[in-house]
UniProtKB/TrEMBL annotation:
One of its GO terms (molecular function) is methyltransferase activity. PANTHER family: O-METHYLTRANSFERASE CICE, PUTATIVE (AFU_ORTHOLOGUE AFUA_4G14580)-RELATED. CDD domains: AdoMet_MTases. Residues 105-316 form the O-methyltransferase C-terminal domain. Keywords: Methyltransferase, S-adenosyl-L-methionine, Transferase. It holds the Pfam family DUF6875. The keyword Cell inner membrane does not apply. Residues 343-512 form the DUF6875 domain. It comes from the Bacteria. Coiled coil: none annotated. This is Methyltransferase.
Length: 543
């Protein structure tokens, strides 16, 4: 390898600009068929004849066109791929490169220095919101995505297998190119597309043109905050590489929850080489895409198979199988972990461990490890409840409380008894309802000597000693019921009924000076002053 080889890499930008200019001038479409004299091309595009000759001769050197006779040019096979009317056309890709996307690549040094996307530095706006204010650029982007799909499509359909899904949900499905093919391939399948509102019109128009409108629903929403509509096949194509790990896990979890029993997630992304295999042709393609993402999206990046498996795993999904697709992408079929395994893993990796933001040393929940060892954590599931009906949710919780009460526990230490109810299908609204129901039931349960905690992905409850740390977030929604313990003053000191229930059980110990923890004593004494009349009242009712 010589300095000339590396100069070639540097001058790659000039090659790219030549191809972009060729497309910007409209020449690939103009030269669709036959050969064209320079003079005629010059007139059609309004160019300087000498400069156009130099461009076309350069493109001949790059094998995009051919000079068939002196000053007569025709497209080579590469040039035909730049026409806008070929199915796998690179025409929109060239237009994006010639537009703001290419400008963002120019800002790579900013991205590398700051870790922030150059696109936002240039426009002041993230990529997709920017496109929503620029419909022509959005159309070019959609066309580029649809063209890229063509090579992958046969492999995607094979990997998904012959069984038609009843409902296929394409999350971030853009203008519906992939879903159109799935619905055409499976005439009994219904399709739902979740994307930003501006995708409604192009996706609906596409489905109408294809005669699929009656089996298609567009769902305008934000996949980072909204529930994903339920289905038995959930598709995510080139979404996760736009996102950092936290956002990617949020979307993947939402997709996992959206799967009907037996359903599958199909994730289509590039796979970067694991460690040292950086030299093959696919490594080149994935490296280019990775830098593309770095310049455009906060946190966006290509991931290796191992990284993708870990991401899926931490989002509650197992890999069922993988199929390589042309161009370096891989289709990964995922299915939800068994929820019980997921919950136990969360116990092990979170609740039983120390956490730097907890505000105190020791595991997040000191009871879980001894209770797990003693075998006193019972886990039950309510599979079919979305949690949105408050009456149903309340009834379910009170039924679980009754089970906790009536259960025969093998172990004598009551503090370790706990009943966990896993609610895998709880929607986002259901999670909010769970927060409310927990707050409503808390005094009543405290009076019965019981504590109930709710945990879910969006839970805003904070740690007792660090109000900036949302301590009760779990990968799957659940509630835990246990007997009241000494430390529960931390959770029961600001409500009169709760405090009195607590004082009834533990007041003597405080009175006799038998509580060593200064924080417990402080909370107890303050609440005792505040609620000392002994009258029960609402939250915060001081005497
Ligand atoms: C890279 S494109 C992929 C489109 C399509 N899946 C494909 O394979 O061509 C990402 C898509 O996600 C959509 N998107 C980005 N952020 C979104 C969000 N927060 N909520 C919903 N859709 C979003 C964009 O509008 C765009 O259609």
């Amino acid at each position: 390898m010589t300095a000339e080889d590396v100069r070639r890499l540097i001058y790659g930008q000039i090659v790219s600009k030549a191809v972009q200019t060729f497309v910007l001038l409209g020449l690939p479409n103009l030269m669709r068929d036959a050969e064209h004299p320079l003079e005629q091309l010059t007139r059609s595009v309004g160019a300087n004849p000498t400069s156009l000759r130099r461009l076309l001769r350069a493109l001949a050197a790059f094998r995009v066109v051919q000079e068939t006779a002196h000053d007569t040019f025709a497209l080579e096979p590469l040039g035909h791929q730049l026409r806008s009317d070929t199915p796998r056309t690179a025409h929109p890709t060239a237009l994006l490169a010639a537009n703001l996307v290419g400008q963002a690549w120019d800002g790579m040094a900013h991205a590398v220095r700051t870790g922030k996307p150059a696109f936002e530095e240039i426009t002041g706006t993230p990529f997709f919101p920017y496109l929503s204010d620029n419909p022509p650029l959005r159309s070019i982007f959609d066309a580029s995505q649809a063209a890229g799909l063509h090579a992958e499509l046969p492999g995607i359909l094979t990997a998904l297998g012959p069984t038609p899904p009843r409902v296929a949900v394409d999350v971030g499905g853009g203008d519906g190119a992939l879903l159109e093919h799935i619905l055409t391939h499976h005439p009994g399948t219904r399709g739902v597309l979740l994307d930003r509102p501006e995708s409604r019109e192009p996706a609906t128009a596409r489905m109408k043109r294809a005669g699929l409108a009656d089996r298609f629903t567009f769902h305008a929403g934000d996949f980072l905050t909204d529930d994903v509509p339920t289905g038995d096949l959930v598709l995510l194509r080139h979404i996760v590489h736009d996102l950092g790990d936290d956002d990617a896990a949020t979307v993947l979890r939402a997709c996992g929850r959206a799967l009907r029993p037996g359903g599958r997630l199909a994730l289509i992304e590039m796979a970067t080489p694991e460690t040292d295999a950086h030299q093959d042709e696919l490594a080149w393609d994935t490296a280019v895409m990775d830098l593309y993402m770095m310049c455009l999206f906060a946190g966006g990046r290509e991931r290796s198979t191992q990284e993708m498996t870990e991401l899926l795993h931490s989002s509650g999904l197992d890999v069922a199988n993988r199929t390589p697709l042309p161009g370096g992408a891989v289709l990964t079929l995922g299915r939800p972990h068994k929820t019980e395994e997921l919950v136990i893993e969360w116990f092990r990796t979170y609740l039983m461990r120390d956490h730097p933001e907890l505000g105190r040393p020791g595991p997040v929940c000191p009871f879980v490890e001894p209770a797990h060892r003693a075998g006193t954590i019972a886990i039950e599931h309510a599979e079919d409840i979305d949690g949105e009906d408050p009456t149903e949710l309340r009834r379910l919780i009170l039924g679980t409380v009754a089970k906790f009460h009536d259960r025969t526990w093998d172990h004598g230490n009551k503090t370790l008894h706990s009943l966990v109810l896993v609610l895998p299908q709880l929607s986002r609204a259901g999670c909010q309802q769970l927060d409310q129901t927990q707050a409503d039931l808390k005094p009543e349960l405290a009076t019965r000597g019981l504590m109930m905690g709710q945990f879910h992905e969006h839970c805003a409850e904070t740690a007792a000693r660090n109000h900036a740390f949302p301590v009760s977030q779990s990968p799957v929604p659940l509630i835990a019921i246990r007997n009241m313990a000494l430390h529960d003053i931390l959770f029961l000191h600001h409500d009169a009924r709760c405090f009195h229930a607590y004082a009834e059980r533990f007041g003597d110990r405080f009175a006799k000076g038998g509580v060593a923890d200064r924080v417990f004593v402080q909370y107890y004494e303050r609440a005792a002053v505040r609620f000392r009349s002994g009258q029960s009242g609402g939250r915060g009712e001081a005497v």
